[in-house]
Amino acid sequence: MRNLAALGLCFVFIGLSGSTWAAEAEQESTPSHVAYGAGGALGTLVYAPFKGGFCLLGAIGSVFALPFGTETSGKVVNSACRGTWVISPDVLKDERSSSSSARKYPNSSAWRG
After folding, report:
1. Distance between CA 90 and CA 65 in Å, rounded?
2. For the residues of 13-70, what is the DSSP string, one character each?
3. Which of 21, 55, 77, 98 could make an SS bond with 84 (beta carbons 3.0 to 4.6 A apart)?
4. Which residues, 6 or more positions from 85, have their beta carbon under 8 angstroms from its beta carbon?
5. Contact in structure between 79 and 100 (CB atoms under 8 Å)
6. Could you report the per-residue pLDDT of 19-30, keeping only the tens digit for each?
């Protein structure tokens, strides 16, 4: 339990420090900055285990793709494990996409929801 709490604090500090490195044209209020940082940390604590489970299932599924070649098996694992693992304040503000598909097809409204 202590390790989980320490991990959560690390995500909070990383999320808050990462957003202060970039020079923002519009300054937001301190309470909203803190709220987005806390939301990103909490979102990461909830999202990362599900993403890890999805990655693990993709790795298990890639075993069944091995008869079709290692390249196909690698694509299965790659598609299951790549993408965003950390929910940052920018993702919550919709300034950066959390989906790698939205980066591939930036003009497609189907990927934006």
Report:
1. 36
2. HHHHHHHHHSPPSSPPPHHHHHHHHHHHHHHHHHHHHHHHHHHHHHHHHHHHHGGG-H
3. 98
4. 44, 47, 48, 51
5. no
6. 555 555 466 788
Residue 103's contacts (CB-CB under 8 Å, 6 or more residues apart) are 97
Amino acid identity of residue 41, one-letter, is A
Residues 6+ away with beta carbon under 8 Å from 86 = 11, 14, 15, 40, 44, 48
Query: Please, are residues 60 and 75 in contact by the beta-carbon 8 Å criterion?
Result: no
Query: pLDDT by residue (tens digit) across 30-72?
Result: 888 888 889 999 999 999 999 999 999 999 999 999 999 999 9
**CA nearest neighbour of 44 among 88, 92, 101:** 88
Q: Under a CB-based contact definition with an 8 Å cutoff, are residues 37 and 19 in contact? A: yes
Cα–Cα dist 7/52, whole Å: 15
Closest CA to 87 of 43, 50, 51: 43
What secondary structure letter does DSSP report for 8?
A: H
